[in-house]
Every structure is written in C-alpha cells, then in structure tokens.
Prior knowledge:
- By secondary structure, the protein is of the alpha/beta class.
- Among the domains are: 8-171, Rossmann fold (3-Layer(aba) Sandwich); 450-583, GMP Synthetase, Chain A, domain 3 (2-Layer Sandwich), CATH 3.30.300.
- The protein contains 19 helices and 26 strands.
- The strands form six sheets. Strands 2-1-10-9-11-12-13-14-15 form a nine-stranded mixed sheet, sandwiched between helices.
- Helix 1 (8-19) crosses helix 3, helix 10 packs antiparallel against helix 11 and helix 11 crosses helix 12.
- The protein is globular and about 75 Å long.
- It starts with 7 loop residues before the first helix and ends with a helix.
Amino acid sequence: MTFPFTTLSGLALYAVTIHQNPAALAYKRRGRWRQISSETFLDSVRRAGACLIGLGLKPGDTVGLSADSSPFWLMADLAILGGGGVTVPMFPNAARATLQHQIADSGMRILIVGSRELRDLFRPLCGDDVRILVLSPRLITSDDPDDGGDSGEDEDSRAMGSLWNARARAVKPDDSATLIYTSGSTGQPKGVELTHANLVSQIQAARLRFPVHPADSALSFLPLTHVFERMVSYFYLASGVSLAFAEDPKLAGADLRDLNPTLLTVVPRFLQKASDLIMTNARSQGGLAGKLARTALRRAAEKPEGAPATWRDRLYDRLVYSQVRARMGGQLRLVICGSAPLDPRIARFFLNIGIEVYEGYGQTESAPVLTANYPGHRKLGTVGQAFPGVEIRLAPDGEVLARGPNVMRGYFGRPDATRETLVDGWLHTGDLGRLDEEGYLTLIGRKRELFKTANGKMVAPLPIEQALMAHPLVEAAVVIAEGRPYVTAVIYPDFDKLLVWRDELAQETGTVVAGSFLRSQPVLDRYASLVEEVNRHLNSWERVQRFSLADAPATIEGGELTPTLKLRRHIVEGKYASKIEAMYAK
C-alpha cells in the first residue's frame, strides 16, 4: 500500500486530513516539552508560505534554510516547497567559505535562519540581493530583529495564503524540491538537485520496509539538513507518528528516558558511545550485581546472531538487559542506523540486549537510501538489500551502481560532473562492494580511496580505519598508504576517555606521568597494543607499521571535519604532514 500523494506539499495536506494528530510534533523549550498538532502545523506552514510569497517568492526560486532541527525547520521547508520554491539546507557550523559558495552557487535571494545570532553570522556572507529572515516558534520572519510583526490574518496575508494553497496543489512530482550540497570531503561542494518525486519515492519505499503506525512515537536528534533525517521525518508525518525533536543532541539519552519513543534513527557513533557508557557503568558497579552485569554484557557482545537463548540469557535479560533498555527509554522497537558503516560487533551487542538495530546505506545523490536491512531480513556486517524500486549492481571493478526513482536529477550547474556520476541512468556511487546470492550488499571501501603502495599492493583504508575506531580510546583514524612503502596511520584519541584512563593508571601504579601525557610511554604502548590487535586480522601488506597521535580533536571549525562529521583526508594529511613524513623517515 502506498501513500496517495506525489509531492511533499501534497504530503502535508494528506497528513493533516488523515491523521489529525494532536501531538504530531514536539520540541523542548526552557526545559519543557511543547506539542504542536497537525492542524496547527499546516496552518503555520500556510502562514509562513504566505509571508514568503509576499516577499516575492516565485516558483523555481531557491531559498536557503539554516537552523537547528525543530518543527519550525519542517514548517519553513514545506512553506518554501508549497510555494513552488527549492530549499537549500545549510549547516550553520560549516566553514564560512563553504557557506559563501552555497549562497552564490545556488543563486538564492532569500535565506531563512534560526536565530538572530545566525542572522549576524550570515549577514557579511550575503550580498545585497539576499534577504535574511529569522525563524522562531511564532514564525516571525523579518530582517529587523526588533520588528515584532508576523504573517497575521490581515486581508493581504489571507490572499497570499490562498495563493500558497493554489501553488502547493500545482507543484508537480518532477519539480525540483531541494539542492543539498555535498560535504566537500573530496573537493568543492556540489549541489545535489533532488525532485519531489525523488524524495516521495523514498517515503513510499520506507512504508514498505518499516511498519509504523500512529501509536508509534519517535525522537529526532540528527540534523534535518542531512537528507536522511529529513526524509525520515516526513515519513513519520505521513504515517501519523508523533515526532519530538531533541533540544541538544548531546542530551539525547535523557530525552530517550523522558519520552520513551518506539522509533529512533542514529549514526554508528551514537551506538558506539552508548555501548561504551553501558560498559563503563557496569565496570563501576561493585559486588555481585556488578559481576553479574559484566558477565551478562560480555555475553551480549559475544553471542552469535541467531543463537538460541539459554536459561542464562533469559536470566541476564530479566536482571541486566531490561535495565539497559530502560535507560534507553524502554520502548524502542526500531533503531535505524545510517550515514557510515556500523561495526557488526556493536550491532550484535544491541541485538542481544533486545534493541532491534537495522543498518542501511545511501547517499545524498539517491535521496538517500539505496539498501537497508529491515524486519525479517537482516545480515550483520551488510547494509542490507535494495530498497523498493531501487536496482543495485556491481561494475566490473566492484563499484556499486544504482538506478531508481530516487536518483538525483544531477549536480546543479555541473553538467560535466553529472555526466561522470550518472552514466546511462546508473548512479556511480564511488563505493566498492560485494553482493551475496540473496542480494545483501557489503561495503568494502571507496573506489577513490583504494591506495596502491610503492610495492604495488592495493590497500583499502576504510576497513582498517573502522577497526581502529572500534576501540573506545580512538575517536577517528586516517590511514596513509598511497605511493608509500608501507601503511601508517594518524590516530585521533578520544581525549575524554584518555583522561579517565590516565587517572585510572595513576591509581593502579601510584605514579603520575610527568610532561605531556599524550607523548608518554604508557600512552604510546597502549595505542601500539590496539594497533597490533587490529593488525592480527589484516594481510601483511595492509598492517599499520607506524602510527602518530593527533595533537587535538578533529573539528568542523578546524576544517578537518565536514558538517556531517566526515574526516577530510586531504586536510588531515596537510595538517600532520611533518608527522606523516617522520613515520617514513629511515
């Protein structure tokens, strides 16, 4: 069964007509959750749309949107789309040069920001032709922060509201809906042009793969600027699911316990940190309860997928796993993980404690899902089977190719780049993979990041980096091998955990390391040990022969991370060039 709409503006009208949910959306303000009904949501969309049309929005115009995730982000997005516009989501914490490029490249004339602080940040980046509007819970949109006016119900706004209704119904599936700029991890960001049909096809496919219903509730803490969370949020809205937005992603754990949601979308790092915290809490417990918790959690980490439950497993579930689930809200039945590969050991751990995790894979260029594990169809270590309507095949060199109604129109204003990526209707993902006989896809690396050493050996850095990052003391890692005689790595420590370990070491040994702890022998020995553990599972030519520790965490402001928290390999290599060369010095 499919939804009876073909555009995102049609989705908004459908959701209100069918569900009439009094708690469709929620957000936290001043420590209190505030709910928004579906009727109020659509009315706010209409009022915001009327305001934009009154300011000159025409069909096909691009409109920037830079704000924290909230119901008001979605209202602004649908106001733009229903007015015939094209939304350009922008990460507020992106580098200024990146933001300037997006403003100029997209040709926007209106930019909606989430606060006065963001207005002040963007003002010097925008030309005189770009009008900056401020979004708030009252949908106040004004250049002047002291202007208290909004799109009230005067005669003009009612006329504009009627015009927005007419435009929303006139939007066609093949109309452009959004320009989403790539992270720029491999160069200048490109605007991915997605249509209403691209995004709606994903919402329809999600309905076939993930059964949800109006009794469900979801917590969102991932950025709506990323197409994954945006698409999922509209899927929830169309399904009548109540959706709450976390005020601070760092406090999502408290929100889980506060709201008890049944649905959650995450990135692998969230699950990694959650598992680390669970293990840390168990280690801190004393007595018989602590011993039981540690034994039970070791069993969860080691029990093979699909192995029958023993009486001990049932005991662990009643006494230990149930408490872990309670700390994560107690009601989670679907946890969907995307954005980056998930360590199968982490997935196994959560499955064995009773939290159903399903890993998927996609790209912005595919709006975004290409494959997914789903209820009744899951293989750990894979990213699942093709999403409904999507075709997946492998090129002779192992590159993953995809075709379907979700694949982008192209890169905005970049015909050459579009022709390189879309060939005969197939999206060339740049990822290397394997397909098994049941159609489950396993990713093995990036095509452009398949290094050739000076000895002619091929090295895929991604699996090595993932293996290193599976250790709690490693925040990130960058493997170096192209044209080099052997493999090395720049390792970013998890500095918070490293400080905890320093204190534990001091208590155990009774000594305090003098000088820089990061360069001390105990630290170097600890990281050498974990590198050696990773090397045991690698071919001889893939093993990390030397490593160097980064001096500070990778940050977006420092340019090492993209706004979607991907490492920019070339930036890291440039920043630590002297350390890298030292690892190859004789």
